[in-house]
């Protein structure tokens, strides 16, 4: 095994990550919204790297890249994404793509390991246009009508226009072939502080939590901010603020140990300083890996809405339902073994609070995920980072886990 | 006196208001942002009406119209504005312009009344580009640099571009001539429910409240909404919601009897459903006609900010300071007399909670304001309305008050 480990080139892994960081830099992070120029350049960068790993691939009709191998034996699919949130970190996405590329570069030319790692970059994991459009397209979950309807939430550009501008209109979309892959493995930064605070190096993902999202709208009475006495106001914005504070007071008694909830966006209508808001809207999200917990919280949310209905009309509308995805047990074992051999056993089984393409791939094949520590637990911000040593340790464990999975399958 | 009253043509007043309503209609209201096509068309409509009242005037270099008379004797300036808030009511502004026009049509040709009413339409009272830019320009409070800097808050178009597109670039701006006018009178809908709820027909404005405006910013820690445990979050949006609720709980003990406060806009940064807001901002406004009350409330606001500073940084920044404006006592008496003669004495002295151009004119000449009832107290909304009979009563009282003011001055 030590012989194999020597073949992971940590310097090459870091160099690749820095090459991607240099495309669309923003402070110490990057700004690469889906189909932006730096995102497209990052995709071209990956296409040019594929031959180094004995792979062939192009950008497909939805911005995915799936590099395929002609090597005989089992195929393991591995990857992540190359676009970023706005003004966000350099590792969220690229880390998993570069690990996959490194695994392919190490394993595919190795005659002693049967089979190959195939490398994927899924488009729009960050949801500029929708939810996991790239990976969902690959598993057959995106229709042409879905693409017609998708628009960039940053600037309202249609996905069709973005694909046309990128020269991708009319290209075929890569599709999942039943039986081709023995599974999917993805690496990612943890995006939390569990590993760092326990001085651990590898997270073995047991499940990816589901995301339930709600649009909660408050209707009051729009009026003049100078002439309407306080006593007769029906201020939709104030009703919304009360609701946020009330959620924070009442959810803890009902939630599970790992439940999280977030109000990420608030809009007052019309949003002018001299007008009492007649309407207000909040985007509210709950995450858990237990649908039973979500059901209890949603009941609470709806009963809270009914309680405050005397102040104005409150409507709770569920706009996204996320089923939790379980990670394959044998993949978890392979990562744990690799962590024992290459990271001094400093690994931990944990759920993923964030959504990842692995949850989409898990609907059609066994899937697993590996986490590396995030400094300060920070992510979705340009200060996101991971220590170089941890990046290299993660790469070594990832490549070893790929080899273990391929070898077990070949001998099974 | 009855002889005079007969000369107000209620049908003509209503027809004029409906003509303006038909320019840029939105549901039962209008949508005429400053320098929009329907706003400009409304200004041209007024220019074409001026000769009916023996007045001459053009749109000036900032979008004001001041129609002047060559009739000997005292001159009373009267008017309001013709642009609207977005998707707002049909009377907010046009009522005061049409009353002024009607007063000029009745009084100016009348050889028995010395002097004339001159009609003004002030640009941008609604503040699409700034605060009272039109009336402030007239009294000498707007520099060329102020115009250079002004931008449309709806679409960020510069005022220079708007003036150029309207064909007004390079035109001179009408300026206040010291001694020309004996004062300024403006009519407006009440924008509250005080008159309606007491079955009164005329509001005699005693003062226009000052507006103090604050930008309150909260800094937390931007992080991933799925991976950051509730216990370690520093959610700037939640801190803002708590602050809003806290204001509502604590202001009533410190405010005056007519103080009003409003959070009209809330922005979470970055405003994405899967990101814990790292920053949040609210635009907060307080109105009162007593600067002492405002000082107490501002102290409370700052001490509240200091208290919650442990959750994150809170900055309270005053971005607008409004001095209350007192209305001229003899103008109040003239309106009261006219109300006694023509509205059965169903009038009430009251402060204006809303800002009006009269507060700007009051800095250079005696000023007065008359209110008519608002149905349901609604304003700044397309459902804003006033009963036809109340519109006509208001016009009769307004014209009579103009005549009284001119007559008193002429005989003084």
TrEMBL record, chains A, B:
Belongs to the peptidase M20 family. GO terms for molecular function: hydrolase activity, acting on carbon-nitrogen (but not peptide) bonds, in linear amidines; metal ion binding. This is Allantoate amidohydrolase. PANTHER family: ALLANTOATE DEIMINASE-RELATED. Gene3D superfamilies: 3.30.70.360, Zn peptidases (3.40.630.10). Binds 2 Zn(2+) ions per subunit. Zn(2+) 2 binds at residues 92, 126, 380. Keywords: Hydrolase, Manganese, Metal-binding, Zinc. It comes from the Bacteria. Residues 209-311 form the Peptidase M20 dimerisation domain. Homodimer. InterPro entries: Amidase_Cbmase (IPR010158), Bact_exopeptidase_dim_dom (IPR036264), Peptidase_M20 (IPR002933), Peptidase_M20_dimer (IPR011650). The lineage of its organism: Bacteria, Pseudomonadati, Pseudomonadota, Alphaproteobacteria, Hyphomicrobiales.
